[in-house]
Structures are given as structure tokens and as C-alpha cells.
Amino acid sequence: MIQLATEKIDKEQSKTEKKQQREQRRAEKKAENEKLYQEVMEQDSVDTPEVPEEPKKKNKWVKRIGIVLFVLLNAAVIYFTAASEFSKKAPEPIKFDFTNIMYLLGGILCLLVFLGCETAKYMIMMRHLGEKVSFRHAFCTAALGKYYDCITPSGAGGQPFQIYYLHSNGYSNGAASAMPLSGFFTMQFGFVILCVFAFIFGNGVVNGVLAPGIKITAYCGAIGYTIVPVMIIITGIAPKIAMRIVAFFVRIGAKLHIVKKPNHTIMKAVRYLNNYSENLKTITKNKGMLFKLLLLSVILQFAMCSMPFFAVRTFGGDIGFFRALILCVFIQAAISLILTPGNSGAAEGLFYIVFSSLGKSGTFWAMLLWRLLCYYSFIIIGVLVYGVNAVTKIRDKRKAARLNKEAES
User: Looking at the record, which segments are called Disordered (predicted)?
Assistant: First the structure.
């Protein structure tokens, strides 16, 4: 009996000690988080808004190898989809009549609607922030931002270049930062709204077409779309809670040896979220304008996800608009987890798998047209905008030099 009582007392003491140790660890983490948060706040209070420098070539060989691998990946996917399409039967001759041409023009119209809505968003923000309203700068910001999204992994290059572009064209630091970040924020939410609609009303459409794994991946991708916007909102409402959430996941990453410098990463992430939150507050003060930005974002995402319908119908496929739209939303959500530029490889492969399973003709050509509309066209437009801007700068410099000579004479 005495031995049992002693063991019971030892267990109780052990539980008490473990509880005290847990509470001590929590207190230490809380103190560490508080210290990090104060350091971030102090640093933010003395820092001036930073404007990124023009993108430079950090490592030419790494970039060249990356481009080669990127081209090979696209070529491989196109080759295998073509082989799958034409291995069992000879390719049918492509015939275009008036109906096919109208569907092709419909796909091009979707591209124009996307660029038009994104340009309108920047013009609205320019007017609201009291900056000069310029269609040219708004369009270039939209087009070049999409260009950098398409050529960088995870689309990470768009907003930094947009901030640089706006600042270099005379927009204030605050406006140059607020507009791209708010544009990104509303675009993310625009797609999330479309996902919610598709997941609620489109399950009957995708059942039997999409494999369960693709559907689960799409749900995960949609959740991924919400992470940054939700964290930005939490940062604005309860910054210390956001700090704890960031610290929790970063420290898990450190334990898994994914993150090497946890404290530095936490500070960097929190400052990033603070920057987003502060810039977003500038825009969200006007609720009417925020509604316009969200509405335009939903429309442009709707236009983007409508492209597969026009692509498939252009090459003789028989598919309803609603079905094609819902399938594209699922595809876009699923491939968002792929970190290659423009989700290359996964986008082409998944499009072909999904739409060829419906028994539609010309799926390979429809896939090429879809990627041209939703991806390669933005790269082409970005290159053209770069070329026009370069010619304009040269012309302006020559004009300024000529005027200086005339003034001196």
C-alpha cells in the first residue's frame, strides 16, 4: 500500500513538473514572440518605404539553365500530349468556318476583358490616391505585372516590378506600393469567390470527369489562394495573433530543417505582412472603391476561366459553357500548387487529361490555343510593351538633347 501511494505521489509530481515545464516553454515562446514583434515594430517605425530596384541579372548561368529547362519541360509536355492525341489515329485536318472563327474571337475577347479590367483597377486606384491618372501607365503596369508573373516561379515577380515601374514613372512611394499590392489582394479574392461558386454549384458537373485526387488538390489550391489575403486581414486586425501564427509555422519548418534562420524568417514574414496590411488600409478606406476592385477582379477571373470553352469550341468540340467554366476553375485551383513559371507542365497536362476524357475532338489543338490565350499571350504582350517603352525612351532622350542644343544656340 505504501509503495502504491508513493508511486501515485511520484506520478502526480511528475505531471505537475511536466505541466510547469510546458507553461514555462509557452511563456518563453510568448516572450520571444513579443521581443521579435517589438523589433519588427521599431524597425518599421524608422524605415522609409522601400522601392525595389530594377530587376538585375544576379547569375546569368543559373538563369540560362532555368530557361533551357523551362523550354524542355514545355516541349516534353506538348510532345507527350501530341503523341497521346495522334498515336491511335491520324491527325484530322483543321477546318475553320465562320462559327469556328467567332469562337476564336470570343477567346481573344476574354484576353482583352482581362487586360481591360486590370487596367481599369489601376486607373481607379490612381484617381482615389490623388495621383496622375494615366491609361498608358495603368495598362503597362497591368501588362508588365502579368508578364513577370508568367516568367517567374510562383508568379513572385509581378508585384515587385510593378512597384518599381510606378515609382520610376513619378508615382509616390506610398501609391507605388499600395496599388500593386491591392491589385494582387483583390485578384486573389476574385478567384476565391469563383472557386466557392464552382465548389458549391459545380460538383455535379465534375463528378465522373475529375478524379478524386484532382478535386482534393483543387480544394487545397483554393485554400492556398486564401492564406496570404487572410493573413493580411489578421495582421491588420490583430497583429500579435498574426505574429504567433507565423512563428508557429516557421518554427515547425525549422524543426523539419526547412527553415535555417527562424527568427530572421519570422521578422521578414511579419514585416512583409505589415507592409501589405498598411498599404491595403490606404485602399480600403473607400468601401465603394474596394467593391469596384473586387467586382473587376471577379470579372477578369471569370474571363480567364471562360477561355477553355472558346478554345475547345474553336476546334469543333461540343461542350457547354458552364461545364467548361467549372472544369477550368478546378484545373486552375489544382495547378496553383505547382511552382513552375505559369504552372507550366501541369497546366497543359491536366487540361489535356480532363478535356480529352470527355471525348472531345481536337483537344490537343484546343490545349495549345488555351495556353496561348492564358499564358503565352501575356509574355508576348509584355515583350511588346518593353519594346515600345524602350523606343519611347530613346525618342524622348533625343528630343530632350535636341531641345537643349537649340536652347544653347
Answer: 1-53
